[in-house]
Amino acid sequence: MSDPLPETGDGIQLNAVGNPTDLRLEMPTLMARELCKSYRVGSGKLQVLRGASVDLYGGQICALMGSSGSGKSTLLNMLGLLDKPDTGKLWLHKKEVQNLGQAAAARLRAAGLGFVFQQFQLLPELSAFENVLMPRRLAARGWWSRRKEERRSAREVLERVGLQDRLHHKPSQLSGGEQQRVAIARALVSKPAVLLADEPTGNLDRKTGTETLDLLLRLGREESAAVLLATHDPDVAARCDRTIFIRDGVIFNQVPE
Ligand SMILES: Nc1ncnc2c1ncn2[C@@H]1O[C@H](COP(=O)(O)OP(=O)(O)O)[C@@H](O)[C@H]1O
Ligand SMILES: [Mg+2]
User: Fold this and answer.
1) How confident is the model at residue 7, as a pLDDT?
2) For the CA of 41, the nearest atom of ligand 1
């Protein structure tokens, strides 16, 4: 029988969710409880999340598996403050964040959250360098000295993803794998505590997908980010530290029922 799990100040039981025991005593970087989300469809309502709870820990890469349409992207959008749950709570670094206004959520996103999407979602008119600079600019205060520093960090992170020779290419002038590497650089330029990746290799061929996943996992580990990676590919999930499953709008840990 294991020890009782610690509780947060809000009386929420932290969940061991298949982590090594030392993680039980650590506060999750991102913690979601009982998230519910429905979409209005015509005159009806489609209930997608029905009380989904998730803990993400710094330095741990977690796969989120579930069939197509099970709500993976919906959940990632809630965790990344891109959309609001109908009910439920969300904490980032112990701060309750599900009720933030748009401006505060945008600031927090720019500073503390990184996203990688299946469709890359780069701005087509901007170069690789400008795309990576964008989150820093959104969080910036505009001092020139800061701008120099931002440009340096954008250049550095593009070097880390191996694109030092592609800084001034537009997305249309890059291969799919290169575009996703720009997106990874953009996600990591602010050194986010949380990295959310939504089927990041889903639009790439097998070989490029594997290389891109290698890069994403390596950089996620180097940054000690709390990573959640949505995928329907068991080979991708097998490369992560743990796997959670979404079904019928709730999260199952480790083993799908
Ligand atoms: N904005 C929306 N309006 C209405 N229905 C939506 C919307 N976004 C997603 N859905 C529906 O919610 C369900 C879950 O979608 P999604 O989260 O994208 O699933 P997954 O990423 O696991 O494939 C799907 O049935 C989808 O059609
Ligand atoms: Mg999806």
Assistant:
1) 42
2) 4
